[in-house]
Structures are given as C-alpha cells and as structure tokens.
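Entry 12.
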Amino acid sequence: MDRYRLKNIIILILVLLNGFLLFSLGQRRTAEQNAFRRTAEQLSALFQGDGMTLDIHAISQDLPPDGVTLSRDTALEEQAAAFLLGKSLISSDQGGGIYYYAGAAGEAFFRSSGSFEASGLLADRDPADFCRDFCRTFSYSTPDIQLDSSGSGVFSTVCLYGGLPVFNCTVTFSIENYVLTAVSGTLLPKTGAAVAGETPLSAAGALVAFQQMRRESVVVASTVLDTQLCYELQNTGASISLVPVWRIVTNTEDYYVNCYTGGVTTGGARSSGSSS
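Predicted 3D structure (tokens):
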C-alpha cells in the first residue's frame, strides 16, 4: 500500500512539474510576442514618420541561418555536364581551376568559382521541360519560361541552398527556335560547412539598417511589402561562401541587408524566375 501511494505521489509531482514547465514556456512565448509586437509598432511608426508605409505583418520573426563555406564538388559538375551534354563525356583539366567537358550535344566549361557555361544543341526533348528538370536536379527555383512566337527567349532563375534563394547566384537558359542552345551561371555544391558568425540581424534590425540607408540616399520606394531570408554568394577566388541576408521587398524594387554587417545592396529579382 505504501509503495502504491509513493508511486501516485511521484506521478503527481511529475504532472505538476510538467504543468509548471508548460506554464513557464507559455509565459515566455507570450512575453516574446508582446516584445515583438511593441518593436514592430515602433518600427512602423518610425517608417511612417519618414513617409514610408510598413505593415507590422511584413516584419518576419524567422531566425537567420548560419553562414556556409562551400568546397568545390567536381563530381556534381560532371553530373551537370552529363545532364546537358549526354553521358558519354570527354573531360580534361585546362589548368587554372577550369574543367572542360565535351559530349554529343556540345561542350561546357566549369570553374573553381562555381561559374559554368555550356553551348550546343543541349536538349533532346521539349526545352522548357528540360530546363525545369535541370533546375529541380541542381537546386534552382523553377524558371518562368515563356517563349515568343518564334520559340525563342532568354530566362534566368536563382539558385537555392537549404531551401533559401541565393539572390546573386543564377542560371540562364537561351532557347532559339525551340532549341536550347546555351546554359550559363553558377553551380553551387549541395553541402557545405556551417560557419557561425556574429549574432545576425533580425528582420527588425535589417529594417533599421535599410531605413538609415534610405535617409542617406535617394530611395523611391514608399511601402515595405515583406521581409524574407535568403543568402548572398561571396566569392574571393580562393573560397566560396554564403552569407545570410534579409530581402526587403518594396513597391519599387528589392533591397538586401547583410545579416552580419548591415550593409545594404540594391536590386534583385522579384520572382523565382524572370525572362528577358
């Protein structure tokens, strides 16, 4: 009987402890939400005072990822070359970090910087489907392919890493008379080493940096529509790395704020794919 009562007491203590922990967690989350709401309202008022509209719902609460250091993946490059040129490849090291591939469909060059270009008759089927398959296989967002009346067009889309876009890393497809004739851009390795830097800026911090830049330069934008996380590709020649940035979407163009330095870059694609 004593053992039975002791067991019930232990169970009751555990239930009460779990209840206390859940209550504490709920209080903490409520406090964080209230703090974020106050910050968002203050930011909105700050922007309004400068003649710019900022809806508090446009301020993301997401946490920026770590930076990433990437190492060259020649196996992935060969896979991409085979996708574009066919499986029976002839390859050679050209020196200076350049690899050359030739196949039945054409030729391609891949560089240590991650850049590449391929040319020839690169698709043995519908070129639009071929381009979309290439993007799915090698981690690019889906391109918006709309050919003109002659079946021609040039289309670009951004690279994805860990599900996030790399705003200054793209691939471009050239289609002429329903034939894919050229592909060029940057091919990123699919895995890398995380690099923990300084405490990254939140979306609110990035908006403060953006507003300071806006005060110091001519910015036509009048409304902030959204804040989104993405990466910026940094290439020093000796190494390739990705740095987390905030994309600030306005009614005129996009701005990118480095999560570590607060530096602001102007311009960028409005959608996952674009044509020209």
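Annotation: The radius of gyration is 25 Å. The CA atoms of residues 122 and 180 lie 5 Å apart.
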